[in-house]
Write a sequence for this structure.
């Protein structure tokens, strides 16, 4: 027993600086923000006292023009389009490449390269591509549609009051589908070859092979792709700031926090941040527990 | 022996699979092949389209930036916009290297140590600790941002790049730990550690002489990841720095963010901003995907 103790204590020591840093910078600061969100600090002066959950309920009951609800709706549309888009595109690319395409490295590199670009940089070009001019004033992608006689496809992009956020997801899909492709490729390559061979010997068609043999094996991959894209979407800030800037039409909670801080309403900004954290935690915490358990089982 | 283990693991995941029986195809082979490569080409064109626009527009002169002929090649190629963009971005370009290189190296090293402990030198409760560490990579950083500025200045860290180095390193620890933990769990056999312990090697010696030498693939992944994410970050940058002491994303946004920006200069600026990370991806991308695969294929 003494001997075992002596062996694991250095491990704990080696890792403890990280633990202290994360305890302070993750959990400590979250606690600080939660504490702030319960007070009435709505300007640069110190808070007068605690107000319970008022800052949270006010977001839903007395926010001007239902601004917070509006930002949540925007986030929902963005998230759905972004997640479906990256997963469908990433899966298609992985399927096209999974069986040893010629020059596989080239295709992979091209599909993955947008991931290397910052949202601030790609925002510059996407703002240009999603030019809202139509008809003879068409620019960017609309100009291509116009030139091809496909004028009905021309779109006001992110300036559309109802579906603008779906357009805002397009650059994000461009940027991250390659990453999802890499996840799926890794998943496919992790499936033992015998499984395929057995299915083929049994006379499975290609469709049956994928539907009944390979896809079920990819469940963990799909789950982690959903979690990764989902939490990225909740944090989306850089892209929106760089394509549209901070404005009503495209406001999501992450941008709302920034705008609220500019007016020095610290307590309200803290409440929005904590709400955003809760949305993420509701999904991520069960996922982490699930991963932890399934690792123990294997 | 351990070097071979790594060399053998990575290609094993991607070994060619010729020779096995082919499934019954719905379509005749040449047709299927044409469709497949046709789709690959179409997708490549779509993915590269923004890059084409960036390059072409950045070489156009002001007269040519209008609604007409937006997609055409420049009539006269000019570097004027590149010069203008470089004047605006140059100082922050250097600063961003001072940010991204230390962040990539330090957080990778910390991640390797943590990953090693959590996979092969475990202590009671290691799983719970790992889950608590991991949660840190999912949080929306807004939830820590408001007090963060006060805390770093209270700690006495200089504003601008030093602050950002600290912050990116700390918030990079979870993902680096995750990558190395999975990596070591795949490539380092438990018996190897036990043998080292029998020989009386302590934790640090085992880590330094046995583990670090076979960690190259893991380091490639975390270094690329941390380099690009600190290079590309805008959220921390806008909260904790400004155009005078901040990284290049801040400078680019100042150049391109105006209501009606000079698109030629903005696009040249976007290319300058992206060059280092693109270079890293093109040069190391192979190993990145390889390492991701080695890390994700869990035992």
């Amino acid at each position: 027993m003494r001997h075992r103790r002596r062996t694991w204590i250095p491990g704990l020591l080696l890792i403890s600086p990280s633990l202290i840093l994360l305890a302070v910078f993750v959990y400590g600061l979250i606690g600080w923000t939660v504490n702030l969100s319960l007070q009435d600090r709505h300007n640069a002066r110190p808070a007068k006292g605690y107000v319970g959950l008022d800052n949270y309920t006010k977001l839903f009951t007395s926010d001007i023009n239902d601004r917070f609800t509006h930002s949540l709706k925007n986030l929902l549309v963005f998230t759905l389009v972004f997640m479906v888009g990256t997963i469908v595109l990433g899966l298609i690319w992985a399927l096209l490449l999974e069986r040893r395409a010629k020059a596989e490295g080239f295709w992979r590199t091209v599909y993955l390269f947008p991931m290397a670009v910052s949202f601030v940089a790609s925002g510059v070009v996407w703002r240009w591509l999603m030019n809202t001019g139509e008809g003879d004033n068409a620019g960017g992608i609309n100009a291509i549609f116009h030139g091809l006689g496909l004028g009905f496809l021309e779109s006001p992009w992110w300036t559309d009051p109802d579906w603008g956020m779906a357009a805002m997801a397009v650059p994000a899909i461009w940027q991250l589908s390659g990453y999802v492709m890499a996840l799926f490729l890794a998943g496919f390559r992790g499936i033992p070859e015998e499984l395929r061979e057995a299915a083929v010997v049994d006379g499975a068609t290609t469709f049956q092979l994928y539907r009944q043999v390979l896809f079920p094996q990819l469940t963990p991959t799909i789950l982690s792709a959903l979690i990764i894209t989902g939490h990225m979407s909740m944090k989306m800030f850089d892209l929106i700031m760089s394509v549209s800037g901070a404005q009503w039409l495209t406001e999501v909670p992450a941008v709302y926090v920034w705008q609220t801080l500019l007016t020095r309403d610290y307590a309200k900004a803290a409440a929005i941040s904590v709400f955003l954290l809760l949305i993420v935690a509701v999904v991520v915490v069960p996922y982490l527990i699930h991963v932890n358990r399934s690792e123990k089982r294997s | 022996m351990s070097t071979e283990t790594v060399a053998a693991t990575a290609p094993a995941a991607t070994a060619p699979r010729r020779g096995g029986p082919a499934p019954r195809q719905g379509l005749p082979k040449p047709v299927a092949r044409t469709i497949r490569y046709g789709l690959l080409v179409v997708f490549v064109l779509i993915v590269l389209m923004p890059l084409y626009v960036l390059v072409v527009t950045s070489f156009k002169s002001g007269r040519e930036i209008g609604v007409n002929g937006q997609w055409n090649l420049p009539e006269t190629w000019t570097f004027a916009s590149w010069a203008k963009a470089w004047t605006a971005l140059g100082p922050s370009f250097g600063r961003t290297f001072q940010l991204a290189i230390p962040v990539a190296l330090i957080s990778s090293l910390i991640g390797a140590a943590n990953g090693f402990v959590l996979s092969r030198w475990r202590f009671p409760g290691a799983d719970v600790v790992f889950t608590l560490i991991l949660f840190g990579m999912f949080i929306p950083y807004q939830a820590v941002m408001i007090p963060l500025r006060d805390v770093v200045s209270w700690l006495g860290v200089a504003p601008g790049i030093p602050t950002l180095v600290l912050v990116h390193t700390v918030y990079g620890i979870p993902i680096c730990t995750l990558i190395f933990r999975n990596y070591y769990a795949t490539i380092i056999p438990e018996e190897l550690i036990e043998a080292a312990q029998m020989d009386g090697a302590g934790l640090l010696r085992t880590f330094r002489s046995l583990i670090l030498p076979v960690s190259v693939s893991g380091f490639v992944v975390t270094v690329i990841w941390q380099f690009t994410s600190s290079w590309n970050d805008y959220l921390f940058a806008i909260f904790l720095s400004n155009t005078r002491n901040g990284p290049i994303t801040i400078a680019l946004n100042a150049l391109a963010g105006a209501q009606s920006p000079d698109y030629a200069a903005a696009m040249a600026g976007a290319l300058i901003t992206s060059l280092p990370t693109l270079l890293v991806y093109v040069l190391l991308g192979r190993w990145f995907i390889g390492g991701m695969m080695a890390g994700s294929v869990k035992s």
In short: Chain B has a mean pLDDT of 84.
